[in-house]
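Recall that a protein's primary structure is simply its ordered list of amino acids. Everything else, from secondary elements to tertiary packing, is in principle encoded there. The following example makes that idea concrete.
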Amino acid sequence: MTNPVVLITGALTGIGRATALAFAKDGARVVVSGRREAEGKALEAQLRSLGAKAAFIRADVRHEDDVRSLIDQTVKRFGRIDAAVNAAGTEGQPGPVVDQTAESYAATFDTNVLGTLLSMKHELRVMQPQGRGSMRIPGMVISRSRRW
């Protein structure tokens, strides 16, 4: 597909950032998302300097309203979502399990599990009517070209 629209959560660091740069270099239209506005705007500028059509949309995947808005803004700007890379994740607080609090575990769970589920839910809301799309979670691929 020429110039696919790619949405990347957790795009400000690590795998998400590397993925955004790679797609931009390949000519994709890239929407990057994360929680930190300044870093997101800097990444958007870097992607544009590579010649990509790019946008940063601030979102926290732990909050469904943020995810819904991220998906809606992506479609409003580019008309569709061809691929989504759900790279938002956290290692949580380092240390032994016996030293972990319920709050720190919940924050990690909400980002890594709930955030991925909410992202997929709203990405599918767009991809199902399109009849195609691809979702990637680092280490996993969910693709469908016809029916979900």
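The chain has a mean pLDDT of 92. Helices lie at 14-25, 37-49, 64-78, 102-130.
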